[in-house]
Every structure is written in C-alpha cells, then in structure tokens.
Write the structure tokens for this entry.
Amino acid sequence: MKIIGISGSLRKASYNTSLLRALISLQPQGMEIEPVRLNGISVYDGDDEKATGKPAAILELDQKIRASDGVVIVTPEYNFSIPGGLKNAIDWLSRGSSPLKWKRVGIMGASDGPIGTARSQYQLRQTLQSQEAIVMPRPEIFVSTAHEKFDAQGNLTDEATLKRLNKWLKAFADWVEKKA
Ligand SMILES: Cc1cc2nc3c(=O)[nH]c(=O)nc-3n(C[C@H](O)[C@H](O)[C@H](O)COP(=O)(O)O)c2cc1C
C-alpha cells in the first residue's frame, strides 16, 4: 500500500514533519509512506498558470498522488486555519482534474496550542471536500502542546501519542483497503 505523506509545514524543525516521521517509523507491514514537503512552490497566480503552467513540484506531487493508494496530510494551525503553503498546494493541484478526487485521505496535526490543530483540521476537511477527496472521519489525532511531546531532535517521545498513532495507522490501512 503506497501512501503519500504531506507535511503542511516548511520549516526544518517542524513538529508536523516530525509527526510524519514518527508515522513512517510506525508504518505497518505492507504500508509505505513517502514523505513530501511543500517548500519552494510559488503562490497560485492564474496569469503564471496561463503563461507557464503548473510548477514542477506540483506536477510531480500530482503524479505521486495519482499513483498512490492514499494520502496523509499532517498540518499545523496558523491563525486558527490551514497554513497558506498547504492551501496553496491544494489550490494548484485543484486546477484541471484534481488528483485528490476520490482519493482516500487521512489528516492529523500538531501545534503548540491546547487543542492541537482542531480548527485547521476541520478547515482542511472542508477544503478536501471541494476536491471530492474521501477523508477518514475517525479516529482523529490532535497533538496539542507539541513542545512537550517531541525531544530536541524531533523524536516523538510521548507514549500516549505513540499509542494513538499506532491505532490510527491500523484504522487508516483498513480505511484505504475499504475494510469494514
Ligand atoms: C503564523 C503563525 C500562526 C500560528 N497560529 C497558531 C494557531 O492558530 N493555533 C495554534 O495552536 N498554534 C499556532 N501557531 C503556533 C504553531 O502551532 C507552532 O508554530 C508550530 O510549531 C507550527 O508547526 P510546525 O512546528 O510543524 O512548523 C502559529 C504559528 C505561526 C508561525
């Protein structure tokens, strides 16, 4: 089972990219999560699209998503919402036929705050609905107070979160395989 893992954060020491790394380290047998970062993608501009088409990074991501069985998006929360970089990537992907259409998608996120990206995840669900993506309803993962759950090297050290990630991965594998 091939899964594309997208981090919505661009920074190197990102908790969300670390969370994606933790997911990869726990991936069950038969699942392969390929991590993708969204650095260096220009802001969507219809004139640029007309003149030069989609950015190379978007064309590459589009192909990877099409060839995958599912997508995991690990998102931060910026100002109670989805980070602009992630929304921008989805805006680019949406042009023409979206590779997210009918794609099985799982979402989660980590933030410094007390509700662990709940607001941005619910806004991401709404945006993914516009793509006709099929987003796993639950279980949900909201990693709150992330600064207490990762060590200085970005390793997820919180036992309860690790346990929840394992359960989530099992549920996601079943969801992608459309098992009851
Ligand atoms: C512009 C900006 C807005 C933010 N807004 C929120 C917010 O609304 N809610 C929240 O929980 N954290 C917010 N934060 C703090 C982030 O949770 C924190 O920076 C987190 O580390 C970002 O994810 P990352 O580590 O994956 O980059 C904000 C951070 C930035 C830079």
